[in-house]
Amino acid sequence: MVISFKNDAPIEQVEELVENLRRYCSNVQVVKGEEISLICLVGETIHIDENMINVYPWINSVARVSTPYKLVSREFKKEDTVINVKGVSIGGEKITIFAGPCAVESREQILSICSSLKLAGFDCLRGGAFKMRTSPYSFQGLGYEALKYLKEASEEYLVPIVCEIVSVNDIDEYASKCDIIQVGARNMQNFDLLKALGKVNKPILLKRGMAASIEELLMAAEYIVSNGNPNVILCERGIKTFEKSTRNTLDLSAIPVLKKLTHLPVIVDPSHATGKKEYVLPMSLASIAAGADGLLLEVHNNPITAKSDASQALTIDDYIDLRERLALVAKAVGRKL
Length: 337
Ligand code: PEP
Ligand code: MN
Known about the structure:
Blueprint (H helix, E strand, L loop, with lengths): L1 E5 L4 H12 L4 E5 L4 E7 L8 H4 L4 E5 L19 E3 L2 E3 L5 E5 L6 H14 L3 E3 L17 H14 L3 E5 L5 H7 L2 E4 L7 H7 L6 E4 L6 H13 L5 E5 L17 H8 L4 E3 L1 H5 L2 H13 L4 E5 L17 H17 L5
Parallel strand pairs: 7-8, 7-14, 8-9, 9-10, 10-11, 11-12, 12-13, 13-14
Antiparallel strand pairs: 1-3, 1-4, 2-3, 5-6
Helix pairs in contact: 3-4, 3-11, 6-7, 10-11
The protein binds phosphoenolpyruvate (PEP) and manganese (II) ion.
């Protein structure tokens, strides 16, 4: 950390700040310059809050040399984290496909979709139980009943399942039924939930908030990892911009940026990012070409009857076609499907 300050700063206040900083970092040096002076901190500065420095009116700037997150950073761990769930690996050479409907709508629906996906080939079944809908009048999901049907599908077709949790009170229920627990975009900064999930022995699929920066996503992941759970999968799912042609704007460059900054697996959800099924195929191909470790896709057995996100749902045939095209891109970038 490098702190620049004005030369006319009251000496006793500079000493007070330096003394305070030494409580957090043992190597604090003051370098006097002609016009400005610097306080340089070498070593761990993660516990230092910039606001405690900026309170002084004579401070020019505070610059971090290292990242504000630690455990999730590439600096901390060079090798990619590979997460294994019931024989499925996430973050390795293989591209991992999470697929299923937006919401579990009935026992028959989820079993039918799971059976078709199993035939087509996929890695992990998704399906919402408690839906975070913008309108309170929209379908809210089947709740705990959905978890029961997902578990049944998982046992019958031998696939792991992922489902979004929306309440810290449901952690035990989710940990006992799901193989991976999803934190949705709307809860990315629900810090109580993140801390509690840090204590759970299940991988967490953490989606980027719709107005969250990459650094905020990594800080959210740091909450989970620093509380004891190292198995976090990051998911880019589009961010809000001024562009109206798609539901959100898929931040494709977040993939190589995240791959550089963190060792955690990075997947992409082109369904919620685009909101339109015609764009899901090109964005899936682009995501894998850009280095994503997997995809989260909404697939429905009968999209026109879907109770949520019908316009972005792929049919099973769309999914089969997508998989074929994806295999070519995966091969071109040295990955396996
Ligand atoms: C979902 O995956 O079901 C979902 C609601 O996505 P997001 O949290 O990205 O909006
Ligand atoms: Mn959805």
